[in-house]
Amino acid sequence: MRVDLFFSRDITEPHAEIHTNELTENIQHAINLLEDDSKSNMLAVKKGKDITFLDFDEIFMIRVEDKQVKVYTENNEYQVKKALYQVEESLNQNFVRISKTTLVNIKKIDRVAPSLKGMMFIMLKNGLKDNISRKYLPDFKRTLDL
User: Fold this and answer.
1) What residues contact 4, with CB distance under 8 A and at least 6 apart?
2) Is the distance from CB of 70 to CB of 83 less than 8 angstroms?
3) Which pLDDT value is given to residue 25?
4) Burial class (CB in 10 A: 0-12, 13-18, 19+), 83
5) Residue 95 forms part of a structural domain
6) May I ask which residue range the UniProt record assigns to the signal sequence (predicted)?
């Protein structure tokens, strides 16, 4: 499916147009997401030329790598065009920042252990690993009620 996005300073309220020859389940899902003004529990991500929607519960980690925001699920890697802070604003309370470049879903943590120089090491249930920096450790502990 081709997606066109247009920016204009003249538009007072965002709107979307979908042109299709049939109403598929994916298109209906996109319509429902676009019409829902409440905070969605989904994140639009891109893999190659395909755009898909991930439920927050599917996301393990979001981190900046090579100046790109990457989203990791159990077995896949996606990209987001937004800055990390913008993605963070759209997420729910299950996500916590563990470093300047990384957010994790606390429901996907396998274990946390001490690391070097006052940092903590985190391993997620899909095998991804990272360090929790000293700066973000107090917030991390507060989120987990430690």
Assistant:
1) none
2) no
3) 79
4) exposed
5) yes
6) none
